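queue> holo job accepted (flavin-adenine dinucleotide)
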Amino acid sequence: MKNISVTVEKGLCISCGVCRGICPKNCISFRREQGMYLASADSSECTECGLCQAVCPGFTHVYEPCGGAAETVSGSAQKCFNAWSKDGHLRHISASGGVISTIVRVLLDSGEYDGAFCLDTYDYSAQLKTRLYSAKDIEEGWGTSNAPKSRYLPVSHENAVMYMRENRAARLIFVGTSCAIRALRAAVSKLRLEPEQYLFIGLFCDKVFNYNVWSYFEDKYLNGAPLKAVHFKNKESGGWPGDMKFYPNDGEPFYVPLSDRARAKAYFMPERCLYCVDKLNVTADISVGDNYTGIDESELGSNSVIIRTDKGMGAWASAAEKLERRAVSFEDISRAQAIDLRLKNMYFGDLRTDCDDLNCGVPREKNAADFESEWKTSIKRLRSGAVYAEKPDAVKKQIYKDNKKPCIVKRALKKIFRYAKRLLK
Ligand SMILES: Cc1cc2nc3c(=O)[nH]c(=O)nc-3n(C[C@H](O)[C@H](O)[C@H](O)COP(=O)(O)OP(=O)(O)OC[C@H]3O[C@@H](n4cnc5c(N)ncnc54)[C@H](O)[C@@H]3O)c2cc1C
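queue> job finished
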């Protein structure tokens, strides 16, 4: 079938929803399976026009080769900054320094753009979808809306694509992870829309969870009682990067250490993220992440920002007055985001012999076979998280076992063994 089913069969659907938004027959729907919202085309309606496949970020990410592997997957930059919002409240409620919320607010307020597609909930019991924010929302208090903060989950951009199809003259801002920005750019091109009308703000992206993590959180922290919202990062309890904040349906909100989130990731991850090396969102106009450079870091939160295009430079200039910013080198950001380490995902992707090049254009500097055992362990973990709904106790046990600290004797023996090995060398 020449449609989205190919991506789903290969386990590469990332639930970005762009296929659904672009389908001229409106025949793509999503079914919840293995913690993901997987696209499926109604075969009685589908004409196999191929549009959904053409925009799908599941198959491959194409890079412009420039130097070595790390340089290629980092992309190009006109300017780089560490920055944060001058609005203390916005900075406080944002994921990091509030740079994205500030840029969006300024550009809607000034009328440079007609709308921005952002999120509006912290409830992850259903598929997350972006929705349109306009200048009116800004007037009514953007700072109190549910737009800011990071959701480490797949997000559907179907509403955004449907809206640009129907409103071809609208000037719009999109915020998204690397796969979403690639898919949205492809949609603009396939729909023959004017690319200059759109501003793409890309999030640096390590990986997302799948939606099973919501039930896992409910089981682990509330004995199965329902949650109504989760902040993956919240600065209230001790500044940036902050703890997770859980809001139960009944009872007081409570905090959970960030390390618990990191531990769960390996199990509740879509397989597509395991092969992605586009951590810095190279096709965005402006890429924004947390500031881990060691320069200007603050417990109030700050961002690292890469301005990639002329359009990005224009948007950045418009927001200048509302942001504190300090120039920083591209190398500092790339190093802080451990891009070298991330390259192992490319070799994992190369081990998928049933897929063509998942990361096209990136020079290979290592042997994929060296990563095989690590890839297999990663696959085993994420496949167990995918079936969490069927076997919750087994998965919880496995996570506990994998993360249990070895006993003190074992740890001491390990140290002695490592020391002896070094001496022998
Ligand atoms: C899945 C994911 C992985 C990330 N991984 C990294 C990383 O490895 N390293 C790093 O430095 N930074 C990472 N970030 C980025 C970081 O967490 C912050 O989002 C970023 O620094 C912007 O901060 P801010 O204060 O400017 O954002 P805010 O001002 O709080 O605004 C965030 C904006 O992003 C939108 N948004 C949130 N989540 C999503 C989503 N999943 N899809 C689409 N839009 C969304 C919100 O609606 C809001 O408009 C990641 C973010 C996400 C969502």
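queue> The chain has a mean pLDDT of 94.
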